[in-house]
Design a protein that fits this description.
The protein is α/β, with parallel strands linked by helices and about 300 residues long. About 45% of the residues lie in helices and about 10% in strands. The model is unreliable at about 1-5 (pLDDT under 50).
Length: about 300
Amino acid sequence: MEDESVHVVRPEISIEDIQNSDEKIQFYTGLPDFDTFRALFETLCEFGMDDMESDQRMKLRLVDQFLLVMMRLRLGLLVKDLAYRFKLSCPTVSRIFSRWIIFMKQCLSSTVFLPKLKDLQQRIPNCFKNFSDTRIILDCTEIFIQTPSSLENKSQTYSNYKSHNTFKSLIGITMTGAVCLISKLWGGSTSDVHITRNCGLLEEIQPGDAVMADKGFIHIKTDLDKKGAKLYCPPFKTKSQFTKEEVENTRRIASARIHVERKMEQIKNFRLLQGIIPLTLAPIANELFFVCAALTNLLPPFVNQ
């Protein structure tokens, strides 16, 4: 029996309501099943939840706080909606969400790293047989944000590509589809090449490595050449017709590169990133995006070995 004097909040939905259905777990949290949800929650608890537990103003169980956070990420629910579902005030929901996102970023940081090429080559998927020295596949993605009031910030975040104010991040995945690089968020006006040169990736590239990307990254070829590394990207059409070899190579690169685009779709399946991020979330936008991207590493792999 729970001590009623503690006044534990009994939300409209709790983890017990959905834990026996993988379909419901996937719908509400974006995770594949309850075992994954539980393993992640227990890992977070082991990492250290003292700060969460010491908040005497919060009488919602930690597991339901975690469910609240995952539901906001997955479904893009508004604070007012979550306040109703979990019988809390709007400020309390906002406080829970911010604290958990910052905490989760700290916990998940160690799961996003760039493995050595020799380790990656122990499992080379079929579509990378011709590019077995690929250490990382790159692409940028953008998320819409509320238009800033400052003219300077408005200019820095305006994306001509999206015709909207955005944040942009460089994402890198391995040949097996795992996220191994998540850059900080940049203003939407920043070029893909500038982000690549200033995110720390090039410092990790070793002689013999190869990087795969689309044609927008062609200017990093000179940077990679200096490192003794190579760039796999589709050729620019500088003549009326590609050779048969160029056509085949382009097809093979596209077949391999498609997986980074699929990873972007997985990240955006956390619907909070599909809408317009309000300025109120700007202080934790980097942590928020990182958490969504890192969580996709808990999903079943989509690259055939």
